[in-house]
Amino acid sequence: MPVVNWLKKNLVVIAGLVTLAFLLLPNVVVTVFSFNKPKGRFNYEWQEFSTDAWKDPCGVADMCGSLSLSLQIALWATVGATVLGTMIAFALVRYRFRARGVVNSLIFLPMAMPEVVMAASLLTLFLNLGAQLGFWTILIAHIMFCLSFVVVAVKARVMSMDPRLEEAARDLYAGPVQTFVRVTLPIAAPGIAAGALLAFALSFDDFIITNFNAGSTVTFPMFVWGSAQRGTPVQINVVGTAMFLIAVVLVLASMAIGNRRGKRKA
Amino acid sequence: MATLTEAPPPLTPTAAETKPPRRRGRLTPYLLLLPGLLWLFVFFALPMIYQASTSVQTGSLEEGYKVTWHFATYWNALSEYWPQFLRSLAYAASATVLCLLLGYPLAYLIAFRAGRWKNLVMILVIAPFFTSFLIRTLAWKTILADGGPVVGALNSLHVLDVTSWLGWTSGDRVLATPLAVVCGLTYNFLPFMILPLYTSLERIDGRLHEAAGDLYAKPWTTFRKVTFPLSMPGVVSGTLLTFIPASGDYVNAELLGSTDTRMIGNVIQTQFLRILDYPTAAALSFILMAGILIMVTVYIRRSGTEDLV
């Protein structure tokens, strides 16, 4: 039975592809429904093909404003978390210091905590301090939960660095600053970039922590959440599709550049 | 992202993995740590203390709250909301098991069978992350819509009869049932299972598979005795990364569920943001945190992988 044998051999491949389809199905639906022309307020049922939403992406009140607010917050949260996280990662790998266990658990715990717990406890702090909820409280919260992820990404890279390269730089009379800028930083850069990318994605897409600490400020995920109650405009799907396409194109482009560099070196 | 596709580290520890060298400038590590740790202390650890204090306060919004060590709040919260706690645990556990069953083949495929398609499949796993998860979760409303193709197929295969009998769905509907919520949770946290699984599968030396084959192990035996045990670190961190966020989630229950599928996250959110009963909300959140921490500690001890960071 060659068919049965083939199936047996490739069972894991078939199962894997089924999972991949499960992962990608919602993206297909989001893309298809960005060309829908819904009858009511909700865009859940297919009616007819239309490019209206793509022609007028900002045609919904407040949506593009919330999008630009989310981008701003994500940008500043990325900068903050990347700087603070990279410093911690270097200290963890390169230096000895006291209370390493406490430091490690302070970094690990935010990743091991349900988001709603962090969100709720941060809100009690802000309420107790009488802080005005809005842009700054969202930014503070985002830097807080992105930090740990940056530490993990950068730490992995710094740990695999060959310390002899820096010793060589010092042997060649490079000062500490010069060694850091010309040798250490370029080698650590991919780890820092990965951490920054992760922080940006996490901050831009965060809902639960923002939901608790935003007050009446509306980020893009908050806008989508609100629209699930009031009515979902097709433009939401346009944004979702565009984001997906931009991300895939960027990743493919960076891989193509990486491949070309690799070939040149070889 | 770049770190995910890199070659696995060598099996022998490099110089950097052993104890960090002692250096001049004893203050340097503390100066590097200070700003970030201060941030985490003030905006992560301190809020936990404020939350614990809020949970034992009594009072009202108008008159203000005072710490009165009113532990009855915990008792009242538990006796009123224990069904939501249990439901959260059950949903999160089901979603975690489903993630493991669905995610393992895909992680295996990427690690060993994808060949030159490896990078492309990897991108396809990560790419959905870049579309807001709320938009993608709303798409499940379309996929599972009443009378839609998915529900129709499940109905004609009599799957819905079985799931209705089990109480997972009701009648001809999938939306607004436990099945829809668990499906949403599984979908949302699946990548968090696949990535650690892939990382630990990738590290397995291919020669071990050859050796198992040379010793007349069948493929299934090789998987059971060699591959799966070696992928345990990935299984442990994958299940944690799925279970923890799933247990506190309220997005899937709100968007895909009904009032009968409310999880503890939904209760905490409503108490905090709509009912404004801060002591009860803080107590519920504290119980959730303590429960998760205890379960995670026991789980990590039992599985014997303590080095997760």
UniProtKB/TrEMBL annotation, chain B:
Q: Which domain of life is it from?
A: Bacteria
Disordered: where is this region?
A: 1-22
Q: Where does the ABC transmembrane type-1 domain lie? A: 85-299
Q: How does it sit in the membrane?
A: Multi-pass membrane protein
UniProt entry keywords in alphabetical sequence = Cell membrane, Membrane, Transmembrane, Transmembrane helix, Transport
User: Where do transmembrane segments lie in this chain?
Assistant: 30-50, 89-112, 119-139, 175-198, 281-300
Q: Tell me where it resides.
A: Cell membrane
Q: Per the annotation, which location comes first and is thus the protein's main one? A: membrane
Under the heading InterPro entries, the entry gives: MetI-like, MetI-like_sf
What family is this protein classified in?
Belongs to the binding-protein-dependent transport system permease family. CysTW subfamily.
Q: Which PANTHER family match?
A: INNER MEMBRANE ABC TRANSPORTER PERMEASE PROTEIN YDCU-RELATED (PTHR42929:SF1), INNER MEMBRANE ABC TRANSPORTER PERMEASE PROTEIN YDCU-RELATED-RELATED (PTHR42929)
Query: What is the protein name given in its UniProt record?
Result: ABC transporter permease
- Species the sequence originates in: Streptomyces thermocoprophilus
